Amino acid sequence: MRREVPSIILGVVGLLMIAETFLNVPAVASLSRDVKNWGIIIGGFALALGSANLARFHLVRVMRKNKEWYNSVALLALMAAFALAGVTIGPKAESYTFYYNNFLAPMNTTLQGMTVFFVGSAAYRAFTVRNAEGAILLLTAVIVILSSIPLGEQLWSQIPVISKWIQDVPNLSGQRGIIITSAIGSMAIGLRVLLGLERSHFGGE
């Protein structure tokens, strides 16, 4: 019953969402709005549960003085500061904006910068010319990069034209193929969930 009941609820809710999209029935639309509101409420409780679990995990790290436990102290302090500011003064207050602009925004920028370096490292390894495919990938990347800077057009006036063709024809074709196959896979997974055949999200095989 631990898996059957959630599976039935999931299937009914999924069919309700589909019916709202394709059927113009006021009762179905009203019930669908109620279900979406319930989803927002459940999402709020899930966020609170996740925050509590995260705080408990880092509290244990601090109490045990695990490696780099001071990072956990910083995380807990910022979590408490943001939660307290959000509950007492609201997210639109000047103090909350100060917290966001001086703590959260710089950390997001740092993570994005680190991601750029990781992508650059991966690109360097991928662009190593070991075969014909690698040479084509490297040549394509160089053309697209040169088209994004003034030097590229100064070297050869046709570089922007070639870059536009690369992005509009081969690149767009690949993107459309990925989107189409992803959509088909999503439909297949959704159908399996509605029919109760997909149980992995319940801890099944």
Describe what you observe in this structure.
The chain has 205 residues and is mainly α. Among the domains are: 1-69; 127-196, no CATH class. It contains eight helices and no strands. α1 packs across α2 (26-64) and α7 packs parallel to α8 (170-194). The radius of gyration is 25 Å and the shape is extended. The two termini are 16 Å apart. The mean pLDDT is 83.
Secondary structure topology:
Elements: H1 4-22, H2 26-64, H3 69-88, H4 94-126, H5 132-147, H6 150-155, H7 159-168, H8 170-194
Helix pairs in contact: 1-2, 2-3, 3-4, 5-7, 7-8
Write a brief caption for the model:
This protein is mainly α. It has helices at residues 4-22, 26-64, 69-88, 94-126, 132-147, 150-155, 159-168, 170-194.
Q: Overall 3D geometry?
A: extended
In which range does the helix fraction lie?
A: over 70%
| Gap from first CA to last CA | 16 Å
Number of helices, counting only DSSP H or I runs of 4 residues or more: 8
Low-confidence stretches: none
Order of helices and strands: HHHHHHHH
Q: Can you count the beta strands?
A: 0
Radius of gyration equals 25 Å
Q: What characterizes the major β-sheet?
A: none
Q: Roughly what is the average pLDDT, rounded to an integer? A: 83
The percentage of residues in β strands lies in: under 5%
Summing up helix and strand content along with how strands pair, one would put the structural category as mainly alpha
